[in-house]
Structure formats: C-alpha cells, structure tokens
Amino acid sequence: MGSHRESIFFVDDNIVNLRVGYDVLSEAYDVFTMSSGAKLFKMLERHTPDLILLDIEMPELNGYDTIKLLKAKDETKYIPVIFLTARSHGEDELQGLSLGAVDYIAKPFSPALLLKRIEMHLLVESQKKELEAQKQELIKFNSSLLEMVEAKTKAVVELQNAVMNTFAELIECRDIITGSHIGRTQEYLRILLEALQNHPAYYREIEKWDTMLILQSAQLHDVGKIAIKDSILQKPDKLAEEEYEIIKTHVAFGERIIEKIMSNTSERVFLEQARILVCTHHEKWDGTGYPKGLKGREIPLLGRMMAIVDVYDALISDRPYKKAYNHQDVVRIITEGEGTQFDPELIKVFLNVNEKFEAITLHDDVSSLLLM
Description:
Mean pLDDT: 85
Radius of gyration: 39 Å
CATH architecture of the largest domain: Orthogonal Bundle
Distance between the termini: 75 Å
Number of strands: 5
CATH superfamily of the largest domain: Hypothetical protein af1432
Largest sheet: 5 strands, parallel
C-alpha cells in the first residue's frame, strides 16, 4: 500500500517546461510528459492518470479544445485537470474553470506551490473516490438489508397464509355440508374487487386496499362456526327456528375469536378486515340483517360485498334441505334483493361480472369430478 504512487500527465509544447516539471514532480509522482494534445489522447488509450497538467497555448489542439474533448468522453471526464499557462487575465482563468478545470496556475510557477496545489487536488480526488466507494458499499448493504427484509416478510406472509389455510380447512372439516365454500367465496370476492377498481362510486375507497390481505382475511368470515355444535352445523335437514338462531351466533363467536387474536398481536389491518367480514356479511341493506341490524352504508363495503358472494354460493350449492339453483336463477334471486338485502350499486357490478362467478362454480365442479 505504501509503495503506491499517483500518476500525472504533463502536457506542454515547451520542452524546457516539461523538463522542469518532470524534475519537480518525479520524486513524489509517476510523471509522464507529452508535447501535444494528440499525444495525450494516444497515451490515454494505455493508461489513466490521477491528474493532468495541461498547457493552454499549444499549436493545433490548444488546452481549451483538449479539455473539451476530455470532458466529452466517459472514460476521461472525471480526471482532474489543472491548467498551466502564461495567461494572467481573469477571464482566461474563468474560461478554464468553466470548461471543467479544477485549478489554474500561472507560469512561471513556484515548484513548492505547484506541489502543494497538486497534493491538495489529489487528496480531494482520493476523498471523492473513498466517498463513492462508501456510497456503493452503503447501496450494497441497503440492497442486502432489503433482500433480508423481503425474505423475512415473505416468510411471515407464508406463515400467515399457512395459518389462515389451516383455519379455513378446520372450518370446512366441521361444516362438511357447505363443501368448498371458503375457497369459492374468496374467488367471487376477488372478481368483485377487480370490478370495483374502476367503479365511479367505490374506486377511491378501495384504491388503497391490499387485495391479498383482504382475500386472506375472507377465509375467516365463518370462523365462528367452530363454536357451533356438530348436531346443528352438520344437520342433514332444514334447521328449526331455534337452531337457526343458534347458527346466527357464529357471528358473535367469530368476533370474539378475532378480538382474542388481536389482543395478542400488533397486527391490525389484516385482523380488522377479518372482523369486518365476520361481523357484517349477514347484515342487509334495508336493516333487517343480523347481528346489529345495520342499514345502507352503515354496513362496511367489505361486508356488503361479502353478503353477495356468500348468498351466491349458498344458492348455487346443494344443501340437505334444497337442491342447488342454476346460475340464471341465482342471478335473478340476488337481483330481486337489490335495495332490500343488497347494495344497489354492487348489484350492478355483480350483473356485469356474474358470468365469471359461474365459471368458478363450473371449474369447482370439474375439480370435484377429477378428484373422485
């Protein structure tokens, strides 16, 4: 490390000046002398110096023209250039500096002053390179840190997905009558979310929503069914009135479960969305739903959306007390609920995308046949 010497190119058409400059500088630096700008560029093809001393008054290619060419090339534009000249007018110095020179030293120069000025500029350049190296190291470190954070986030999301999938499977294992209800309602909800992104009444409300988190939280909309007795949840006949009232309590049970989880974690957005879906997907637009009898826009948009997809899947599926309706009849029944059970604006959106709902049910049927 201690044997490293910076290199200096000294360009001047005066041989005496080159000899004096070489004698002054060679003890401290590796000095290469050349008598013209053309020879400088030839030398630059083989070696890049740490600094260039450049005379202004030279034939053919003067110092000003030379520095313009140096600054125009990516490989040489950052090499510091000091002008050495007999010109002493302020406008000459200003011109040199404006073209990119770092300094302007008048001839005849003082050897001690020349050495000190070169030392100062090489120190500045060294510090600039060190700062750039530190900057690149910082960029590299930040990139590595970002990769670590992204990997950690991905792991957390994967764990969260695994927990949610396990919850969903647990619910469906207990409520065997509803089949793959959770997975299908997730897909219906995805379709509605995509359709609402350009809806004039709702796009501003949903533009900051995290669709992935919403679809994950949708898996918990029936989580309260875990607390319902098997004799009711899996009853192969139509429920009696008192049994139906018990089924309705799955909303309150679900809310308690979500709140219990919330009390043990700092995660709020995901669980708040899950709580909205749990608590409001059985509310009705006209206020006759449960558990709170919310009305119109008192019902959160997520709950109003979930109400449509939940009813669609219930109607399109077989139940012990009924056969599945065909898609056209389901669309008709849901449309009849416009303004009473369902948000009128969401019904319009549903009518625009209902064929996509049907495609999900057809795909689900095909998957079931393939698994048999």
